[in-house]
Design brief:
alpha/beta, 11 strands, seven-stranded mixed β-sheet
Length: about 350
């Protein structure tokens, strides 16, 4: 199943965004290899929402200067913090390195992947919550939210171009979990060369108009990291304002190590566009209380030490259909409003 500062249809996934108060800290070094075999994000929702989500036009963006401007040229992404030279050919590019960019600004927002319906967004606009997306190129219109269009895969390029030509999005997302096969039709299942093609056709023209482009979003296993390394090498000259990443596993400590590892390797601000403390490795799922504890631990890190490079956190769970993610991680009640766990996320990240 498939899984960016302000984002969607409450009938598409909702990601909460928040801005951190403390000054940025130095970029953190890699804390060892990511443990375990975490390989999944939720594919089902992504596919269904591409087909069924409501569509409207976004408005009222509120990106921070650092996230919209700190764009790096990608090319070598070797995983060892080596730097690349960047260009400065338009207002949205600052050039830079792919190594440790320590001065990248504060944590920005809590965002939502959202699949409930536009009428429910009113319950989620609190404090620093402004970004939403739904794995599509069209999304809801609601005051206070900025919708982020996504070019989901190779078959979405023409639709994405047509949709984004009608407006000027502040952000745009690359392909969804391209490193996973597409047997189920729930991940984009693309080679790095194919996704490079998508960048030049669909995303770079937007970048030249000032849109902040986020990388393809890979999953939290080693396969996703390896795919991203190869992509960065092949996408010579590609420029990204940030890296989109997913996380699915049950440990906050492992999640922190995962995001540090990617930041150390590629040097980009990180936009967590899907996240849940869900076990896809055959073990037991966390109880609601355990999940709340792990989420609180991660959120505290993201607002503190991680705030130098974590720009957006978007928890999966603000939707009716949890696909194969544990029901214990659901963040809404039967009426579509935040439940206790959802309120704890909003209160910790959006205030």
């Amino acid at each position: 199943m498939s899984k960016l500062l302000n984002f969607v249809t409450l009938s598409s996934l909702l990601a909460l965004t928040f801005v951190a108060g403390p000054a940025p800290v130095s970029a953190v070094a890699v804390e060892g290899a990511h443990s375990g075999n975490i390989v999944r994000s939720h594919h089902g929702i992504a596919k269904r929402k591409r087909s069924n989500a409501k569509r409207c036009k976004p408005r009222n963006p509120a990106p921070t200067s650092s996230s919209a401007k700190s764009e790096s040229t990608k090319g070598s992404g070797s995983g060892n913090g080596n730097s690349n030279s960047g260009g400065n050919d338009n207002g949205g590019d600052s050039g830079g390195s792919t190594g440790n960019n320590s001065n990248q600004g504060e944590f920005s927002q809590l965002g939502y992947p959202f699949t409930l319906g536009d009428d429910k967004l009113q319950y989620y606009k609190q404090g620093k919550t402004t970004l939403i997306y739904n794995w599509r190129d069209n999304g809801p219109s609601h005051d206070g939210f900025e919708f982020i269009p996504m070019v989901w895969g190779g078959d979405s390029v023409d639709s994405f171009i047509a949709a984004t030509n009608k407006r000027h999005p502040k952000f745009a997302l690359g392909c969804n979990e391209p490193e996973l096969n597409n047997d189920s039709g729930l991940s984009s299942g693309m080679s790095t060369s194919e996704v490079v093609d998508v960048y030049w056709k669909a995303l770079d023209p937007l970048r030249k108009k000032g849109t902040a482009i986020l990388t393809p979003a890979v999953t939290s296993g080693q396969k996703g990291f390896d795919w991203m390394q190869d992509f960065m090498k092949k996408c010579s000259g590609c420029k990204f304002a940030g890296q989109a990443l997913h996380w699915y596993d049950i440990s906050a400590d492992n999640a922190i190590a995962h995001f540090k590892k990617h930041h150390d390797a590629f040097g980009l601000p990180i936009y967590i566009t899907e996240m849940a403390f869900n076990n896809f490795n055959g073990g037991r799922q966390l109880s609601v209380g355990e999940a709340k504890s792990e989420m609180a631990k991660f959120n505290e890190w993201a607002k503190g030490e991680g705030s130098s490079f974590i720009k957006v956190v978007m928890y999966f769970g603000f939707q009716d259909d949890m696909v194969n993610v544990s029901q214990n991680l659901k963040l809404i009640d039967g009426s579509g409003k935040p439940n206790d766990l959802g309120r704890s996320v909003i209160n910790s990240l959006a205030q």
